[in-house]
Amino acid sequence: MPTPDTPTKSVFDIHALEGIYLLYWKMEDCTEAIDIPIPLSKKERHMLVCLDQPRRMGDLARELLALPSTVTAMADTLEAKGLLFRERDPNDRRAWLLSLTEQGHDMRKVMASKASDLFRDISGLSDDELDQFAKIALKIRSRIMETGMPKGPQT
User: Fold this and answer.
1) Is residue 54 one of the residues assigned to a domain?
2) Coiled-coil annotation: which residues (predicted)?
3) How far is CA 136 from CA 13, 16, 24, 131, 142, in A?
4) More confident residue, 150 or 82
5) How far apart are the C-alpha atoms of 128 and 135, rounded to whole Å?
6) Is pLDDT of 39 > 80?
7) CA–CA–CA angle 42, 46, 64 (5° rounding)
8) Which structural domain range is residue 36 located in?
9) Contact predicate 118/34, CB 8 Å
10) Domain CATH for 23
Protein backbone atom coordinates (compact mmCIF):
# COMPACT_ATOMS: atom_id res chain seq x y z
CA MET A 1 0.00 0.00 0.00
CA PRO A 2 1.42 3.38 -0.97
CA THR A 3 2.20 5.84 1.76
CA PRO A 4 1.27 9.50 1.34
CA ASP A 5 4.84 10.16 0.11
CA THR A 6 4.81 7.30 -2.43
CA PRO A 7 3.64 8.33 -5.90
CA THR A 8 0.93 6.13 -7.34
CA LYS A 9 0.91 4.69 -10.85
CA SER A 10 -1.59 7.34 -11.95
CA VAL A 11 0.75 10.11 -10.73
CA PHE A 12 3.54 8.65 -12.89
CA ASP A 13 1.11 8.45 -15.83
CA ILE A 14 0.22 12.13 -15.36
CA HIS A 15 3.90 13.08 -15.19
CA ALA A 16 4.54 11.12 -18.41
CA LEU A 17 1.65 12.91 -20.15
CA GLU A 18 2.85 16.30 -18.92
CA GLY A 19 6.35 15.50 -20.21
CA ILE A 20 4.98 14.51 -23.62
CA TYR A 21 2.88 17.66 -23.89
CA LEU A 22 5.73 19.94 -22.82
CA LEU A 23 8.17 18.21 -25.18
CA TYR A 24 5.69 18.60 -28.06
CA TRP A 25 5.01 22.27 -27.32
CA LYS A 26 8.70 23.10 -26.91
CA MET A 27 9.63 21.29 -30.15
CA GLU A 28 6.71 22.95 -31.92
CA ASP A 29 7.91 26.37 -30.79
CA CYS A 30 11.51 25.71 -31.76
CA THR A 31 11.10 23.94 -35.10
CA GLU A 32 9.99 27.13 -36.80
CA ALA A 33 13.31 28.67 -35.76
CA ILE A 34 15.30 25.98 -37.59
CA ASP A 35 17.27 27.87 -40.21
CA ILE A 36 16.72 26.48 -43.71
CA PRO A 37 17.62 28.03 -47.07
CA ILE A 38 14.04 28.29 -48.36
CA PRO A 39 11.30 29.78 -46.17
CA LEU A 40 8.57 27.25 -45.38
CA SER A 41 5.49 27.36 -43.17
CA LYS A 42 5.17 24.94 -40.26
CA LYS A 43 2.77 22.75 -42.24
CA GLU A 44 5.03 22.77 -45.31
CA ARG A 45 7.96 21.68 -43.11
CA HIS A 46 5.85 18.88 -41.65
CA MET A 47 4.81 17.75 -45.11
CA LEU A 48 8.41 17.71 -46.29
CA VAL A 49 9.41 15.56 -43.33
CA CYS A 50 6.56 13.12 -44.06
CA LEU A 51 7.81 12.62 -47.62
CA ASP A 52 10.53 10.12 -46.77
CA GLN A 53 9.17 8.15 -49.72
CA PRO A 54 6.62 8.89 -52.47
CA ARG A 55 3.20 9.31 -50.84
CA ARG A 56 -0.35 9.60 -52.10
CA MET A 57 -1.90 12.97 -51.41
CA GLY A 58 -4.90 11.45 -49.59
CA ASP A 59 -2.60 9.48 -47.28
CA LEU A 60 -0.64 12.64 -46.52
CA ALA A 61 -3.85 14.50 -45.74
CA ARG A 62 -4.78 11.84 -43.17
CA GLU A 63 -1.30 11.82 -41.61
CA LEU A 64 -1.11 15.61 -41.49
CA LEU A 65 -4.66 15.82 -40.12
CA ALA A 66 -5.49 18.19 -42.96
CA LEU A 67 -8.10 18.51 -45.66
CA PRO A 68 -7.10 17.22 -49.10
CA SER A 69 -7.46 20.77 -50.46
CA THR A 70 -4.89 21.96 -47.90
CA VAL A 71 -2.44 19.26 -49.00
CA THR A 72 -3.03 20.27 -52.62
CA ALA A 73 -2.26 23.91 -51.82
CA MET A 74 0.90 22.96 -49.90
CA ALA A 75 1.97 20.66 -52.74
CA ASP A 76 1.50 23.56 -55.17
CA THR A 77 3.73 25.77 -53.05
CA LEU A 78 6.43 23.13 -52.48
CA GLU A 79 6.39 22.24 -56.18
CA ALA A 80 6.80 25.91 -57.12
CA LYS A 81 9.81 26.07 -54.75
CA GLY A 82 11.35 23.06 -56.51
CA LEU A 83 11.12 20.74 -53.51
CA LEU A 84 8.67 18.14 -54.80
CA PHE A 85 6.98 16.86 -57.91
CA ARG A 86 3.76 15.00 -58.68
CA GLU A 87 3.37 11.85 -60.66
CA ARG A 88 0.52 9.45 -61.24
CA ASP A 89 0.39 6.47 -58.90
CA PRO A 90 1.22 3.45 -61.09
CA ASN A 91 -1.14 1.34 -58.94
CA ASP A 92 -4.06 3.75 -59.35
CA ARG A 93 -3.85 6.18 -62.24
CA ARG A 94 -6.55 8.38 -60.65
CA ALA A 95 -4.30 9.17 -57.67
CA TRP A 96 -1.26 11.41 -57.45
CA LEU A 97 2.00 10.61 -55.69
CA LEU A 98 4.16 13.34 -54.23
CA SER A 99 7.91 12.79 -54.32
CA LEU A 100 10.80 14.96 -53.24
CA THR A 101 13.17 16.42 -55.78
CA GLU A 102 16.91 16.22 -55.10
CA GLN A 103 16.67 19.69 -53.56
CA GLY A 104 13.71 18.50 -51.47
CA HIS A 105 15.70 15.50 -50.18
CA ASP A 106 18.60 17.80 -49.30
CA MET A 107 16.25 20.18 -47.45
CA ARG A 108 14.64 17.25 -45.60
CA LYS A 109 18.07 15.99 -44.49
CA VAL A 110 19.05 19.43 -43.19
CA MET A 111 15.75 19.78 -41.31
CA ALA A 112 16.01 16.25 -39.85
CA SER A 113 19.57 16.82 -38.66
CA LYS A 114 18.76 20.16 -37.07
CA ALA A 115 15.55 18.79 -35.50
CA SER A 116 17.52 15.87 -34.06
CA ASP A 117 20.04 18.26 -32.48
CA LEU A 118 17.18 20.37 -31.17
CA PHE A 119 15.41 17.32 -29.71
CA ARG A 120 18.61 16.19 -27.96
CA ASP A 121 19.09 19.66 -26.51
CA ILE A 122 15.47 20.10 -25.39
CA SER A 123 15.02 16.60 -23.95
CA GLY A 124 18.37 16.41 -22.19
CA LEU A 125 18.33 12.63 -22.69
CA SER A 126 21.51 10.56 -22.92
CA ASP A 127 22.17 8.39 -25.98
CA ASP A 128 20.92 5.30 -24.09
CA GLU A 129 17.80 7.14 -22.93
CA LEU A 130 17.18 8.38 -26.49
CA ASP A 131 17.38 4.79 -27.76
CA GLN A 132 14.85 3.69 -25.13
CA PHE A 133 12.60 6.66 -25.83
CA ALA A 134 12.72 6.00 -29.59
CA LYS A 135 11.68 2.36 -29.08
CA ILE A 136 8.82 3.38 -26.80
CA ALA A 137 7.71 6.18 -29.16
CA LEU A 138 7.77 3.76 -32.12
CA LYS A 139 5.60 1.34 -30.13
CA ILE A 140 3.15 4.15 -29.35
CA ARG A 141 3.13 5.29 -32.98
CA SER A 142 2.46 1.74 -34.20
CA ARG A 143 -0.39 1.34 -31.73
CA ILE A 144 -2.01 4.60 -32.80
CA MET A 145 -1.61 3.74 -36.49
CA GLU A 146 -3.26 0.34 -35.83
CA THR A 147 -6.17 1.76 -33.85
CA GLY A 148 -6.75 4.86 -35.98
CA MET A 149 -5.24 8.29 -36.35
CA PRO A 150 -6.80 11.11 -34.33
CA LYS A 151 -9.24 13.31 -36.19
CA GLY A 152 -7.43 16.49 -35.23
CA PRO A 153 -8.16 19.94 -36.62
CA GLN A 154 -9.04 19.86 -40.30
CA THR A 155 -7.11 22.69 -41.92
Assistant:
1) yes
2) none
3) 14, 12, 16, 9, 10
4) 82
5) 11
6) yes
7) 110
8) 13-146
9) yes
10) 1.10.10.10
Tally the residues of the chain. Answer: 155
Residues 6+ apart with CB under 8 A from 46: 64
List of residues 6+ apart from 57 with CB closer than 8 A: 68, 71, 72, 75, 95, 96, 97, 98
Q: Say how many domains are in the chain.
A: 1
Structural domain includes residue 151: no
Residue 4: inside a domain, yes or no? Answer: no
Q: Considering the domain boundaries, does residue 126 fall inside one? A: yes
Q: Are the C-beta atoms of 63 and 74 separated by less than 8 Å?
A: no
Nearest to 116 by CA among 51, 63, 49, 52: 49
Residue 74 clears pLDDT 60, i.e. is over it: yes
Whole-model pTM over 0.85: no
What SS3 class is residue 8?
coil
Give the model's confidence band at 154: pLDDT under 50 very low, under 70 low, under 90 confident, else very high: very low
- Calculate the CA dihedral of residues 120, 49, 154, 32 and round it to 10 degrees: 50
- Continuous H helices in 34-126: 42-50, 57-64, 68-80, 102-123
Write the Ramachandran bin of 58: left for phi over 0, alpha for psi from -120 to 50, otherwise beta.
alpha
